[in-house]
């Protein structure tokens, strides 16, 4: 199992049992026995919760909330920082009620709040009773209704901060303030010029679409002064980005944010909170390097760098230390969910075969078959070249009508047999990159029961890497290399980059598919953005979701089960009324029955098949 690099990316949450099964460990209670993940899946299957399945583990979520809050607390205590930390969870990163509810629950001891980037998210935030000191930070474009709700919510005790995204937004705020006669809690979004590396570089620097530049800031400050509202400006928001790979970028950007904080204070703003937005990265690959899917720092280091940079800069300027706010989403939720699916079937690009050329076959088939007579480790490259050349020539002959389908099938089987022999010999030699590349093309395709577009949209859209590993048989040497193909009819629906111990690989080592039981694969750390951004390509809907709590005795409790979309549900999303569809289908069935094309029992079976499909899961059952 060491080839997968699990020790590196498993974050102490995942390990392998002597039986070769992936196990989950409770990060908060080290004495709790670990629990077999395939065991959980079997148990859930028995209860009718089938794969594909998103499994959420509450302990993983609680541990991350604790880590970030206690990380800031510890840094504050260690450095003598004279302010506190009040984090907020950005709802957009995972809006599912089961997730947000638990974040509020686990965050309660830390007065952890919520960030809303839209009116619907504010409505969700306000449905939670938050601790007295917790914040609700409102970002995004806001209309009068949004602003009215934010201001009035303060009457219920919410600390709802309206972060001004533009000078124009202030006009609306002023109108609503006049209308209500109530004072708002205001923030201002400052655009930092320091550009941060990684996949989300566009969200930082001069050309980012959010926040105000120096000129716009001055306009806002002057306008607030004129309106007698400058004392309401409490929070400076300077979003660092997302998945920031290099901790020194954090330091530099925070340093720049502090300059604005100091200057705005000098302009008379009564700033009390410095909000540094998102950016705390997740080490998906476990490499601990500054790259798109890894980071060169820990949560603790991130906290320390922020606390130290702010403390130092403000001390130098003689400005009081503000309450620190961050809006980490990814780092809070990514590890808490995993996607689990079964493999449906395999396409092989090598296969043992006893096929021999026949007397009336084209001579190229005999030439192809003859390659095995000189196949040795030393001549492996030559044999690869020859076999591929003969196979391609034969395909050209088939296309022109010179050989039959049966003869071509024979040639393909001989070719697959040669590939199987070549693959078996490869470990005996030091292969060249050319041979490696050719052998990678021989990886099997494992067809899997999930939709990349619904469940792993960032893998498709931005080449996000998530750890992927078989859940079972890890005590047996894998005997196949595969790429994964999803259940959509889209050639983009495949995964061909995998995190392994020795780097990123175009294929995943797995086992031949067992005949008597399902073979499960797990994709880890999918809790951030994936559930939210997923789409209905080919009308594959939401998967089943199970939220589990790890028990002290090594068992688990199923806290919540969210059934995946039925076909009727996805039909309604695209504005079909399932009842109308049943009626239309019935009409056709009745027509065919009247014309005696169907008898009564066939009619019944056909209607039942249509209805059962409509009521069922969108995935392979
Ligand atoms: N806050 C704001 C304003 C954002 O735009 C984002 C996402 O880009 C976040 C917070 C969350 O960032 P992350 O998930 O990297 O912590």
UniProtKB/TrEMBL annotation:
N6-(pyridoxal phosphate)lysine PTM sites in chain numbering: 92
Pfam families per UniProt: Arg_decarb_HB (PF17810), Arg_decarbox_C (PF17944), Orn_Arg_deC_N (PF02784)
Domain Arginine decarboxylase helical bundle: 359-433
Active-site annotation: 489
Enzyme class: lyase
CDD domains (alphabetical): PLPDE_III_ADC
Annotated InterPro entries: Ala_racemase/Decarboxylase_C, Arg_decarb_HB, Arg_decarbox_C, Arg_decrbxlase, De-COase2_CS, De-COase2_N, De-COase2_pyr-phos_BS, Orn/DAP/Arg_de-COase
Any one Gene Ontology molecular-function term assigned to this protein's record: arginine decarboxylase activity
Domain Arginine decarboxylase C-terminal helical span(s) in chain numbering: 567-620
Function summary: Catalyzes the biosynthesis of agmatine from arginine.
EC number annotated for this UniProt entry: 4.1.1.19
Annotated Orn/DAP/Arg decarboxylase 2 N-terminal domain residues: 84-334
Protein family (similarity comment): Belongs to the Orn/Lys/Arg decarboxylase class-II family. SpeA subfamily.
Source organism (scientific name): Pseudoruegeria aquimaris
UniProtKB keywords: Decarboxylase, Lyase, Magnesium, Metal-binding, Polyamine biosynthesis, Pyridoxal phosphate, Spermidine biosynthesis
Cofactors named for this entry: Mg(2+); pyridoxal 5'-phosphate
Name this protein carries in UniProt: Arginine decarboxylase
GO biological process entries: L-arginine catabolic process; spermidine biosynthetic process
């Amino acid at each position: 199992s060491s080839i997968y690099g699990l020790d590196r990316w498993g974050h102490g949450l995942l390990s392998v049992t002597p039986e070769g099964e992936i196990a989950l460990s409770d990060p908060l209670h080290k004495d709790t026995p670990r629990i077999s993940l395939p065991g959980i899946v079997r148990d859930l299957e028995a209860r009718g919760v089938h794969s594909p399945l998103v499994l959420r583990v509450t302990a993983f979520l609680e541990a991350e909330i604790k880590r970030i809050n206690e990380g800031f607390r510890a840094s504050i205590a260690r450095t003598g920082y004279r302010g506190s930390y009040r984090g907020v969870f950005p709802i957009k990163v995972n809006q599912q009620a089961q997730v947000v509810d638990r974040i509020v629950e686990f965050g309660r001891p830390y007065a952890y709040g919520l960030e809303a980037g839209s009116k619907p998210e504010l409505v969700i935030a306000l449905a939670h009773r938050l601790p007295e000191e917790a914040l609700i930070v409102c970002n995004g474009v806001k209309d009068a209704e949004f602003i009215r709700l934010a201001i009035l919510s303060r009457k219920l005790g919410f600390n709802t901060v309206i972060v001004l995204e533009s000078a124009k937004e202030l006009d609306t705020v002023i109108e609503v303030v006049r209308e209500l006669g109530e004072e708002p809690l205001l923030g201002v979004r400052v655009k930092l010029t320091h550009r941060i590396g990684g996949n989300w570089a566009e969200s930082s620097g001069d050309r980012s679409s959010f926040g105000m530049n120096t000129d716009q800031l001055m306009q806002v400050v002057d306008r607030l002064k004129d309106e007698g509202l400058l004392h309401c400006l409490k929070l400076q928001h300077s979003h660092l980005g997302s998945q920031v790979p290099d901790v020194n970028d954090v330091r530099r950007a925070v340093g720049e944010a502090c300059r604005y904080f100091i200057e705005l204070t000098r302009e008379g703003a009564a700033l009390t909170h410095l909000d540094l937005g998102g950016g705390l990265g997740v080490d998906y690959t476990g490499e601990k390097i500054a790259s798109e899917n890894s980071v060169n720092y820990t949560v603790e280091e991130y906290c320390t760098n922020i606390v130290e940079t702010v403390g130092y800069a403000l001390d130098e300027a003689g400005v009081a230390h503000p309450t620190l706010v961050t809006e980490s989403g990814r780092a809070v939720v990514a590890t808490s969910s995993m996607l689990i699916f079964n493999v449906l079937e395999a396409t092989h690009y090598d296969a043992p075969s006893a096929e021999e050329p026949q007397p009336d076959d084209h001579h190229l088939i005999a030439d192809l078959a003859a390659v095995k007579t000189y196949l040795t480790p030393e001549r492996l490259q030559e044999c690869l070249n020859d076999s591929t050349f003969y196979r391609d020539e034969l395909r050209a002959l088939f296309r022109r009508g010179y050989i039959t389908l049966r003869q071509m099938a024979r040639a393909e089987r001989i070719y697959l047999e040669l590939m199987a022999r070549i693959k078996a010999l490869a470990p005996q030699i030091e292969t060249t990159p050319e041979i490696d590349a050719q052998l990678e093309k021989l990886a099997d395709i494992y067809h899997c029961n999930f939709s990349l577009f619904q469940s792993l949209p960032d893998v498709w859209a931005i080449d996000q890497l998530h750890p992927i590993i078989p859940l079972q048989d890890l005590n047996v040497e894998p005997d196949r290399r595969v790429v994964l193909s999803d259940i959509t009819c889209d050639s983009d629906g495949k995964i061909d980059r995998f995190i392994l111990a020795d780097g990123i690989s175009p294929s995943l080592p797995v086992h031949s598919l067992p005949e008597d039981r399902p073979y499960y694969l797990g994709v880890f750390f999918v809790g951030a953005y994936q559930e939210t951004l997923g789409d209905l390509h080919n009308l594959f809907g939401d998967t089943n979701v199970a939220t589990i709590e790890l028990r002290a005795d090594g068992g688990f409790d199923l806290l919540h089960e969210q059934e995946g979309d039925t076909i009727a549900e996805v039909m309604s999303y695209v504005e079909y009324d399932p009842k109308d569809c049943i009626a239309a289908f019935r009409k056709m069935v009745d027509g065919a029955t009247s014309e005696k094309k169907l008898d009564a029992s066939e009619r019944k079976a056909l209607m039942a098949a249509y209805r059962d499909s409509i009521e069922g899961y969108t995935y392979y059952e």
